Amino acid sequence: MKSIFAGIGLSVCLLVCHSPASMATEPVKKTIRSFPVETITDKIRGGLLGQILGNLNGLPYEFKYIQEAGDLKNYVPSLPNGACTDDDTDFEWVYIHTMQKKRSVFLPYDEVHALWKERINRSIWSSNRYARHLMDIDVKPPMTGLMTFNPWADFNVSGQFLCETFGLLAPAMPQTAAKIGLHYTKVAIDHEPAQTTQLFTSMIATAFVENDINRILDAGIASVDPASNTLKIINDVKQWHRQHPTNWQETRRLLKAKYTQENSGRRDQNGTELNTGAILIAFLYGEGDFSETLKLSFNLG
Questions:
Q1: Contact, 246 vs 287, CB < 8 A?
Q2: Domains in the chain and their CATH numbers?
Q3: How far apart are CA 156 and CA 32, in angstroms?
Q4: What angle do CA 63, 288, 244 make, to 5 degrees?
Q5: Which residues pair with 156 in a beta bridge?
Q6: Residue 120 CB neighbour total at 10 angstroms
Q7: From CA 273, how far away is CA 12, in angstroms rounded?
Q8: Which of 28, 48, 238, 279 makes the best surface tag, with the fewest CB within 10 Å?
């Protein structure tokens, strides 16, 4: 499994077209909430730093623990050699930079297409790589993310690791966060991966005003299609956590036994099923402790 985490402070470490990844449509009572600017700034910085720490500190464990869980005992978040970015963190920044210049959150897909051809060309993989190849033969976003054209689009984790920053754009507005996230992640993904975009952007947006991890997860659950496989994974992880509250290894074993797709092959390494479950296991067993949550995520694989 691939370690991908976003962090907002110490509280959270962390569809498309014709697919069943539709947004929840229950009416929501609108309220106005005020925030000190210092709080917003602190949580956005925390979220960005959490992403970078999860990305860079997690790289030594990427694809390392597939068959069995890891045994990392101690972990202290640190970047002694400074930070850099890769595709796990910097995709969104291309969009953010242009959003600021154009004063528009939802960039037209023609502009998204141009940004990819100009700036997103190297060190990209799987569904994103295939989407970029499709652009070279004049297939344009969001068609590049349809599983009809892109064979990675119905399972790849691109919907997860390209969405976190969009949650930071919509403090306390989970539906808005999910809409922003989907606008951009569906350039390369479809179907269940789009559900994970909704899940994690909603959780991150909610973490601006909620510290209880169960309520944060509830906000994510409210964002996904009730018929989705993503919801089944969430409910299974919650149930296993209740049954084995001190044994994350057993919950990992149950997740792997039920949701392995290719006997630890490519889909199990970078597909939504095991990775979504692993993120949620770390989130629940980490109990809001940032370092513990990341350590668990590394050990989960």
A1: no
A2: 37-300 (1.10.4080.10)
A3: 36
A4: 70
A5: 271
A6: 20
A7: 20
A8: 28
Which residue, chain included where needed, has tokens 């990427």?
A: 62
* Whether 164 contacts 203, CB under 8 Å: no
Per-residue pLDDT at 24 exceeds 60 = no
pTM: 0.90
CA distance 154 to 193: 6
Bond before 245 cis per omega within 30 degrees: no
Report residue 27's pLDDT band, with 50, 70 and 90 as the boundaries: low
Instruction: In whole angstroms, give the CA distance from residue 115 to residue 112.
Output: 5
Token digits for 234?
């969430």
| Interatomic CA distance for residues 101 and 155, integer angstroms | 33
For residue range 110-163, list pLDDT tens digits in order. Answer: 999 999 999 999 999 999 999 999 999 999 999 999 999 999 999 999 999 999
3 state SS of 156: strand
DSSP for 210-221 reads ---HHHHHHHHH
Higher pLDDT, 94 or 33: 94
Q: Which two tokens stand for residue 16?
A: 């498309």
Residue 47 banded pLDDT, cuts 50, 70, 90: very high
Q: How far is 141 from 177, CA to CA, in rounded Å? A: 20
Closest CA to 158 of 199, 133, 128: 128
DSSP secondary structure string for all residues of 76-92? ----TT-----TTTSHH
